[in-house]
């Protein structure tokens, strides 16, 4: 669970038309961002609702690096004010969300970075970003053989020969 | 068992995330690599990567959503693993057979499909295309259709059936009572195509339907007259798209009119009588697209003109009264001439409030001529060019266009051959000219050529006759839509961009009127844009909806030398 700490007013720039949030990354970088931008994150939204109850200003500590956090903020900034189907609670099931060209370019990063972004998006409960990351990972391995999949994602084959070659319906894992 | 921390990063993802990744694996199921000769669906490979992935995959219904039809074994696995969730059956047995064995076609696929159809009660989407060339194939389709008679499909949202039935085979009957004749409360999209005869079913009584398309379907068993068919649409109050393509019955003059309150898109294709009757009977307060094509054979121009005027009057009665919104849109398409030629004339109109009673403010003409591949009409190496020349005056004369001030032209097939000279001669009153894609290129070429001719004749000081006049003397707005100037520059010399620069030079010299240039949805390089900005003042130039991207022209120098007329402007921007 994240730690929520009270901060001085001086830490957070003065209130403008959109309120400001202070996000603290695991490498202790303080990032100020407009609440409006992060409203796509259900996690942040829930935190903010809690702040309103105490009428205090808070910082939100997050368990990932500023590098990853900045990528997530870039995503949220890009779609600020946009309705994305997948972020709707009544949205289509996983695997059916649309391809967005901007997302594909945004997620053209190395494998480890992609995995960090999907974990951060999952933590922050940003369904659209989770979906886009999942699609990007699936794109890496779609149409590949099992050997190629293992190689691309660095997965070790821990099957016994019998398990590995057993007919599909008899594989129970 | 491998501990969590010893696993590689991908396996350290929470199970729900790995599961979501798996849900995206079969996204491109219809694009499956048909070169694979084994029967292993490619997206199921995740079950053979490691034990952890197999456990997650087996618990992930999304991975098993699409029914694999390459082997009965895998169809059964997917049916089992997807329980109790929904399934999607995509059986493209026409294109999908490329590279497959005869066994697959004759035995494996039909068996797999029969098994999958056995679980149609869980299907949310069925897409089934098949060809029917032989009696054996006909028997197979009949057998599979019989499976669809035995079960209800309460979850079905989309049904797309496309049967290619060859002439030697009698029309294929879709039996009465599909899906156990139970209601289909979720059905939203219904597409049926092919030389088939439809039987009675609940398909056409699904009040949830939002899109209904039928192509070449014999509907006479259900609806003896076109009026009956249209009356039955009352049961579909949510219908937004209706497309009826050569599936009309006989005419019933006494049929009542109906209003479809959600209909925004109506597409009709067929003989003149049923199409015009359908136009007359169906109306909607929010219709945005009316696309009508009538098929005519060997008809003389006066007859074509009479039918065009009838359809135009119907357009006006459908739109003028009910629509005040801008961007209302009408379209009429006529196919004429003999069985080997299709001549399309498309008319769109916008803003009927401004339009006169019989004259839309914006007309869009699309002229295309198609020639059947196997017909040798002695037209030389480039038959389409000759035919376009032959038929375009007929098409234009058939349209009452005098007084048109806004003209929009697109031409998708043979843009280079578009007869602009004829058009520009006829419509000297045009103030707003909107051209797109290849038509834009040929227009610019025509304007540029006219300007060059005039310039050359003016340079010859001993003029014995008046210099040629330039086209479009009333032009106030020139809008170019959807033209990729970058791709065009790679393909054409002189390029559209070079031609446009030439026309702008003519404008700057006062030869062309001082029209405003609007680029809409075009693609340019930053250099092109800055070059244009220098040629025309800001208040006379709009390009807000264009894509501007860098591009390195491989053959740029050659392009400059061949485009000598505009080389200075291009060099400036380089």
Features:
heterodimer; A: 173 residues; alpha+beta; Potassium Channel Kv1.1, Chain A; 4-stranded mixed β-sheet; 8 helices; 4 strands; disordered C terminus; B: 574 residues; alpha/beta; 12-stranded mixed β-sheet; 6-stranded parallel β-sheet; disordered N terminus
Can you offer a commentary on this structure?
The complex is a heterodimer of chains A (173) and B (574). Chain A has 173 residues and is α+β, with helices and mostly antiparallel strands. Chain A has a single domain, classed as Potassium Channel Kv1.1, Chain A (2-Layer Sandwich), CATH 3.30.710.10. Chain A has eight helices and four strands, in the order E-E-E-H-H-E-H-H-H-H-H-H. In chain A, helix 3 crosses helix 5 and helix 5 packs antiparallel against helix 6. Chain A is elongated, with a radius of gyration of 20 Å. The N terminus and C terminus of chain A are likely disordered. Chain B is α/β, with parallel strands linked by helices and 574 residues long. Among the domains of chain B are: 91 residues, no CATH class; 146 residues, no CATH class. Chain B contains 16 helices and 22 strands. In chain B, the strands form four sheets. In chain B, strands 1, 2, 3, 4, 5, 6, 7, 9, 11, 12, 13 and 15 form a twelve-stranded mixed β-sheet that branches. The longest helix of chain B is centred in the last third of the chain and has 23 residues. The chains are: A alpha+beta (173), B alpha/beta (574). At the A-B interface, helix 5, helix 6 and helix 7 of A face helix 1, helix 2 and helix 3 of B.
């Amino acid at each position: 669970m994240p730690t929520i700490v009270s901060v001085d007013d001086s830490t957070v720039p003065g209130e403008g038309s959109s309120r400001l949030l202070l996000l603290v990354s695991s490498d202790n970088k303080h990032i100020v961002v407009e609440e409006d931008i992060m409203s796509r994150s259900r996690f942040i939204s829930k935190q903010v609702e809690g702040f309103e109850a105490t009428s205090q200003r808070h910082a939100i500590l997050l368990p990932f690096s500023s590098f990853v956090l900045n990528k997530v903020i870039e995503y949220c900034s890009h779609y600020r004010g946009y309705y994305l189907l997948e972020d709707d609670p009544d949205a289509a099931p996983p695997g059916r969300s649309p391809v967005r060209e901007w997302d594909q370019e945004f997620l053209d990063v190395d494998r480890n970075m992609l995995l960090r972004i999907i974990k951060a998006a999952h933590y922050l409960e940003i369904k659209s970003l989770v979906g886009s990351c999942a699609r990007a990972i699936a794109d890496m391995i779609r149409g590949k053989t099992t050997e190629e999949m293992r190689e691309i994602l660095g997965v070790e084959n821990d099957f016994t020969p019998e398990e590995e070659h057993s007919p599909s319906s008899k594989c129970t894992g | 068992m491998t501990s969590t921390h010893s696993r590689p990063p991908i396996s350290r993802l929470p199970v729900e995330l790995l599961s979501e990744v798996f849900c995206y694996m079969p996204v491109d199921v219809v694009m499956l690599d048909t070169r694979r000769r084994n029967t292993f669906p490619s997206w199921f490979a995740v079950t053979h990567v490691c034990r952890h992935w197999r456990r997650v995959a087996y618990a992930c219904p999304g991975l098993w959503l699409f029914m694999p039809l390459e082997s009965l074994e895998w169809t059964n696995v997917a049916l089992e693993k997807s329980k109790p969730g929904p399934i999607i059956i995509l059986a493209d047995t026409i294109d999908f057979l490329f590279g497959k064995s005869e066994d697959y076609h004759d035995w494996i696929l039909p068996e797999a499909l029969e098994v999958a159809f056995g679980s149609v009660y869980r299907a949310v989407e069925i897409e089934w295309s098949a060809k029917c060339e032989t009696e054996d194939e006909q028997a197979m389709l009949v057998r599979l259709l019989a499976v669809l008679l035995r079960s209800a499909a309460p979850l079905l949202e989309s049904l797309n059936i496309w049967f290619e039935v060859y002439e030697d085979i009698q029309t294929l009957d879709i039996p009465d009572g599909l899906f156990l004749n139970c209601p289909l409360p979720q059905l939203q999209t219904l597409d049926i195509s092919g030389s088939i005869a439809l039987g009675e079913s609940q398909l056409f009584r699904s009040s949830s339907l939002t899109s209904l398309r039928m192509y070449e379907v014999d509907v006479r068993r259900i609806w003896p007259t076109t009026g009956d068919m249209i009356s039955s649409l009352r049961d579909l109050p949510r219908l937004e798209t209706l497309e009826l393509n050569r599936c009309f019955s006989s005419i019933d003059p006494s049929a009542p009119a109906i209003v479809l309150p959600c209909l925004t898109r109506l597409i009709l294709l067929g003989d003149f009588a049923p199409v015009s009757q359908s136009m007359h009977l169906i109306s909607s307060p929010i219709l945005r697209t009316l696309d009508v094509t009538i098929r005519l054979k060997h008809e003389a121009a006066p007859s074509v003109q009479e039918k065009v005027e009838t359809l135009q009057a119907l357009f006006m009665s459908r739109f003028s009264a009910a629509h005040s919104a801008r961007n209302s849109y009408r379209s009429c398409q006529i196919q004429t001439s003999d069985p080997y030629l299709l001549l399309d004339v498309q008319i769109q109109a916008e803003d009927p409030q401004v339009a006169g009673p019989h004259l839309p403010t914006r007309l869009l003409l699309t002229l295309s001529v198609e020639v059947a591949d196997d017909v040798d009409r002695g037209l030389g190496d480039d038959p389409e060019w000759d035919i376009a020349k032959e038929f375009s005056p007929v098409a234009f004369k058939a349209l009452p266009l005098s007084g048109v001030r806004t003209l929009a032209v697109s031409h998708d097939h043979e843009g280079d051959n578009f007869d602009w000279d004829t058009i520009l001669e006829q419509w000297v009153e045009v103030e707003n000219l909107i051209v797109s894609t290849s038509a834009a290129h040929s227009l610019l070429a025509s304007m540029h050529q006219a300007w060059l001719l005039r310039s050359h004749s003016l340079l010859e000081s001993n003029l014995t006759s008046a210099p040629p006049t330039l086209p479009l003397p009333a032009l106030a707005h020139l809008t170019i839509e959807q033209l990729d100037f970058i791709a065009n520059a790679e393909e054409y010399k002189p390029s559209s961009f070079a031609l446009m620069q030439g026309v702008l030079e003519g404008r700057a010299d006062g030869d062309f009127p001082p029209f405003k240039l609007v680029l809409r949805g075009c693609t340019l390089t930053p250099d092109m844009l800055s070059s244009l900005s220098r040629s025309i003042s800001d208040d006379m130039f709009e390009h807000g909806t264009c894509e501007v991207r860098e591009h390195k022209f491989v053959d740029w120098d050659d392009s400059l030398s061949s485009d000598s007329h505009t080389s200075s402007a291009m060099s400036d921007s380089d």
